[in-house]
Amino acid sequence: MNRDEFNSFCQSLPQTTHVVQWGNSDVWKVAGKLFALCGWADDEPAFTFKVTPLAFEILPDLDGVRPAPYLASRGMKWVQHYKSPGLSDTELRNHITYSYDMIVAALTKKKRAELGL
User: Fold this and answer.
1) What is the mean pLDDT of residues 32-43?
2) How far is residue 104's CA from residue 117's CA, in Å, rounded to a whole number?
3) List of E strands, the chain
4) How far is CA 64 from CA 20, 39, 56, 80, 98, in A?
5) Which of 28, 84, 103, 112 is most buried by its number of CB atoms within 10 A?
6) Cα 88 from Cα 27, distance rounded (Å)
């Protein structure tokens, strides 16, 4: 997945917003809450997303996936796909969707209703 494909995919999810921040990273949010971002690692795109506690234990065992710099060091369950082979494009899209779903599920019922989610 390249950066344009990442942005197109994140944009396709309902009620998402995009900002560029943190050193030219593409940051995707739903209801103002971060669910995915694309930055850089060794001049290659690096995709960061929230995961379940179990996925946080398993995914970093894959070559090209690691606990997300900064976020994981603060105790948050986020990982980063930063080089090949890492995750396939399909797996990456699935994990980004799961991240989005976790953020939406954590919103209040009122907020989800306001957003039509």
Assistant:
1) 90
2) 8
3) 16-21, 25-30, 33-41, 44-50, 65-67, 78-81
4) 24, 15, 14, 8, 19
5) 28
6) 21
